[in-house]
């Protein structure tokens, strides 16, 4: 059904994982949301296949982590394999300590993920979801943005108005093109064929590795993904002369090196051109770009969709505060300021891995093999190689405090015991606002100051107890009395009680300037 006079707080264009995540995040705050998707149904085959612990934590904030985990399996290690099948380097991806509350990485099924995100829309009476509707044209004024919508079935047109519009409409974003926003290339361009399969017989799973592999064969660089259930994916780099004439038969020939094609059902074969592109502007007036509409990266680090979901989490709480008049509209300028460097670092990491995997120079390949063999028995070098590709990047600018010790880092998420004596993850007892978390008593005057800001106060053990003393250990190790967390679990600032008034005042200035 349509909201009154077709007026919403937010319009979202595109209902892939990024757009659907944003719709859930904004609707949780109680806002009116309209989300428009050109397709009538969910694309039935896997595309993205990897999510990390930070993204699972975002799904947790939507109360969807357990439903989504039912369609996932932990991704524990990856191997680099040479041209004759020898494992030259194996990197552990899993962290048994689970510092952020979840396994470090997961393989997942995208159709099932999208279905769960969409089913959750039913919780929100103020969220309207339109399939088979295309946003044709947008128009902005000082206080609103208007979209002209066409129903793909009836060809009828209508207009919808909102305070803000967020384009989550993918790499070929029509909204981005309407706004005339150009893409900056990082000069990474290579064609690969992606072949998704299902094993016909579960017993045949033993014929294949249960570990993700990057096959560094200078004549045919390849990737193998042991997906969820019976899903297995292979990716093969294509030479320039092959791209125009690739056939299903060619794909089967490539596949046959690893498994008898009769043992699998091929779900799809698709040729992709892996890019590294970033939009120059992620905000124009009241319109924002997120996900592939704002950036595209090679898949070697598995961070494309993850980065898009980080985008919308970053944007959702800021939009909420601005719309509720708890922050000035200038807060929204920090969206690109924070996310662009983060995405750029992730993209460069993916490019680094890609350049190693894709080398077609046998001498370079031999050098890489030597370095990998050395790293296999040298933990420091192995850790360095892993962090070059994928690591948690701290925020450097934006809504962060003045004290450089911990600001901008993603905060840990240990298990705690709540007031009902239930063991649960920390975020499950915290609000979706700024949070002051303290191990010492906070003076009443400061708590009064907090009440005038979108900040909630939690003291342990008053509000919950510290299961296994992990929080206490973190505070002791970092020599702090408090940590002030942003709504996205990144640290705004931390320190001893003496500097807390200064930290609160700085936050007030950032939200109101």
How is this structure best summarized?
The chain has 513 residues and is α+β, with helices and mostly antiparallel strands. It has 14 helices and 25 strands.
Structure commentary:
With 513 residues, the protein is α+β, with helices and mostly antiparallel strands. Among the domains are: 209 residues, FAD/NAD(P)-binding domain, CATH 3.50.50.60; 98 residues, Glutaredoxin (3-Layer(aba) Sandwich). Helices cover 30% and strands 28% of the residues. It has 14 helices and 25 strands. The radius of gyration is 24 Å and the shape is globular.
SSE topology:
Layout: E1 7-13, H1 17-28, E2 33-37, E3 50-52, H2 53-61, H3 65-69, E4 72-74, E5 77-81, E6 87-92, E7 105-108, H4 110-119, E8 127-131, E9 133-140, E10 145-151, E11 157-167, H5 174-179, E12 183-199, E13 212-215, E14 222-226, E15 231-237, H6 240-243, H7 248-255, E16 264-279, E17 283-284, E18 287-289, E19 295-296, H8 304-323, H9 334-358, H10 362-376, H11 379-389, E20 415-417, E21 423-425, E22 434-438, H12 444-450, E23 455-459, H13 470-478, E24 482-485, E25 491-495, H14 500-512
Parallel strand pairs: 1-2, 1-11, 2-8, 5-13, 11-18, 22-23
Antiparallel strand pairs: 3-7, 4-7, 5-6, 9-10, 10-11, 12-15, 12-16, 13-14, 14-15, 16-19, 17-18, 20-21, 22-24, 24-25
Helix pairs in contact: 1-4, 1-8, 8-9, 10-11
